[in-house]
């Protein structure tokens, strides 16, 4: 998948507060994931992962965990006063965006099984509280790669 390509997800986990209906305007999260990439790490110990989750739906969701084919574990981090802090979940607001990028919220791939190198692809499985599991393919880019805004 090209870096700029958006992955559109037809998601909508049922819950007791769903309004029912045809799936349009029924209050469910409507997630789109785009811009996923992993910069080639300088060492073989850990790597970072970045992407954007847009929610066009009426209901918020939460990213509750992430796994990857190249890492023993993936941690979600937020940056507070220039310090990384591990978090148990990251909120995806209704009609809002969760950005995972350099200097802010991000994924840390720990216990690498192999060092991702430029030109390869890393698979992430994103687990959302309401929308369930979503698989995303992220290209490995140069260490100093910065996506265009």
Automatic annotation (TrEMBL):
One Pfam family linked to the record: PCuAC
Compositionally biased region (Basic and acidic residues): 16-31
Region (Disordered): 14-36
Segments traversing the membrane: none
Xref: SUPFAM superfamilies: DR1885-like metal-binding protein
Matching PANTHER family: BLR7088 PROTEIN (PTHR36302), COPPER CHAPERONE PCU(A)C (PTHR36302:SF1)
Protein name: Copper chaperone PCu(A)C
